[in-house]
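Re: that chain you flagged

S.,

Sorry for the slow reply, it's been a week of failed gels. I finally had a moment to sit down with the sequence you sent. For the record, here it is as I used it:
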Amino acid sequence: MTDAGTPTGPITRGSVARVGVATAITALCGYAVLYLAARDLEPAGFSVFGVFWGAFGLVTGAAFGLLQEATREVRSAGYTEAVSGPRTHPMRVAALVGVGAAAVIAGTSPLWSGHVFVASRWLSVVLLSVGLAGFCLHATLLGMLAGVGRWTQYGALMVTDAAIRVVVAAATFVVSWGLVGYLWATVAGAVAWLLLLIASPATRAAARLLTPGGTVTFLRGAAHSIAAAGASAILVMGFPVLLKATSGDLGATGGVVILAVTLTRAPLLVPLTAMQGNLIAHFVDQRADRLRSLVAPAAVVAGLGALGVVLADIFGPWLLRVAFGEEYRAGGGLLAWLTAAAIAIALLTLTGAATVAFALHRSYSAGWVIATVAATLLLLLPLDLQTRTVIALLCGPLVGIAVHLLALARISAP
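Prediction finished late last night. Pasting the structure tokens below so you have them in one place:
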């Protein structure tokens, strides 16, 4: 075993480029899985798949709290003097958390699975439980690689996960396995961390790192990050589940809305999610200028998002029909508003990463939880499905952003 030590890889253009390339490949793989599923399943069937895809995204999104805490702990250890005292092995903690989380999902499934999964119910529960256990280790390993700046291995782990999913989805499409095959494809990448540990000595070295403080200290920080990441996952990957819970039977219209939401947010949120390690490491390195460190990444997000709004309005309806079939129809105005909502969630993700980096765990979780509660309440408005979806995804995150910025402003004040 070794201590965390000084970060070996600063945030440079090269490191961002490597993760950027991996992110682009990961996004393409994600689009490929959605494309194959949408072409293979009619809109009503795609809505069933979309709910499982969202459910897995929800639970693994919560597990990203482990990535955030592992990154912060490992990175921060490089800026502190060596001290005696207890040490924590994050990968062992992740294994315990993963097994515990899987047991909770399986044990409570009789209470909720019938309301969420309308087909292949028990297979969905098993895949969700086992996939989450593996992803806890996956996310923690990503965090430790980010903490020590092993960006090549970080990117390789992302790409391996995404590539495995696409291979299983493509095989499902070819052999006409149907819905069950796409359920397996959704969780198949959860073994990627094990494959990279076997293949990469640098990854094994990062996985052996210890962080200052005991297990309870690590879990206390991780608990806030997991709570906030779980709330963020509801708005991001788990939104189809929230939509179904507040709407009942989604039907074909729900399938179109779920696909539209997924496609309009992916160009911004897939890179931001994939680059959580880069962002947290960047904010830790810039801890002397907390609010100012947000300006450049926020400007990039807003600029790219504004371009996306225009493109979604002009080309979105055509692209949706051509790529996924005539059954998938949505107006340009809806796609533009959903893209604007994606900007809001992307900025909330950005401010959240900054609060984690500065150890503002309570404010981080409060921002995301309040945003999720606000979005949920807005989904209950007596409006049509498309209108309340846009209002919830646009207005809910704005409340969370305000919470994060107030917390950052307080600690930045002289």
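What I noticed first: The mean pLDDT is 83.

Talk soon,
D.
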